[in-house]
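As a warm-up, study this chain.
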Amino acid sequence: MPTTSVAVVGAGQAGLAVSRLLAESGIDHVVLERGQVAERWRSQSWESLRLLSPNWLTRLPGLAYDGPDRDGFMTAAEVTNLLQAYANASSAPVIPGADVVSVRAAGRAYTVVTDAGTWRANAVVIATGWCAEATLPTSAASGPRDVEHLTPSTYRNPQQVPEGQVVVVGASASGVQIADELARTGRQVTLAAGSHIYLPRRYRGRDIMWWLEALGELNVPLDPRRDAWAARSEPSLQLVGAADGRDVGLAALQDRGIRLAGRLTAIDGRHLVFADDLNASVGRATARLRRLVRRFDAHATSLGRGAEIEPAEPVRPVWLRDRVRRLDLRADRVSTVIWATGYQRRYPWLELPVLDSAGEIKQVEGRTPAPGLHVIGMHWQTRRSSAFIHGVGHDARLVVRDIADRLGASSAEEKAA
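Now compare it with the structure written out below.
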């Protein structure tokens, strides 16, 4: 059985960031990947998907975007190429096709069993990511069998979707982008929206990410006094990475002919039933945006006239029309439901007592209750940006520092013995 100091599970941006820093620290390791480098970007992205953040915000340890299109947005294929080049430049010891079967304790170390072999490691880093598996509610099974069910992981393009009306459930980033794309091809779309965060793509001539970084919003730390689950359940932004500054807020989607509904509450036979809560959800999102815009404007004032920032823009109210309360799947010719209802993580191979009652890994700054077992890439792991490409470097440094301290302590104990 081969041995290594560290086994990193996953070769996406988080796992590769850890690998880069382990190599810089002189710590031997392997990176175990079920497919190829950036496998999720390769195989679980729809064709038009782009990063929500502009290229200038693309950063990893030892890498910062320096290409010609700083204000553009990378496609999934471009992100894949970037991460493959990053792995190559770092000489990352990636072992492809190493789907993990089990991780279990072996004294003070761990045994990691994969389809490509078994390793003994002093430390393990789980870097399988937050968006591991798109959720499909159990209620989806109770609807008519002649309706197609898709998720953002299985949706590829409008041509894939059967003729008929499409219902998109969920109005965070994935849901609004897919609904917008389908509507632009002339499809009839109903979008069910619950709690959401709306931001314009640009404000006062600057990309919204510029404003969020300038205010430090992207690096807001997880407050230990706040309920961590509430923070990690925060919905993603209603944004699309588009050079034309396209708005995918509910008002804009409504103007493009998309019918809006509140939260999906039940599938009653062949009927979809929606809550009458859309006005309340939109009201909360608008109030939140107004509070944030006031901070943007205060920041612009502090920069003075030399900053070339355009005049302030009012936050306009959202007027909702003809909210859908109930759909008859057959009478309304619904052919497809796309469940953009978030993601879940499953760890059937993790044979260690580190999961909470919801099946999530218990962790503080990446450290789990099992000494030497770490996790990285979780939403709100330490900061708001923890699951973003530009944010994983911060957490990777914390994890690698802890591993180096552990390995150093173990080495000292062995010499003393």
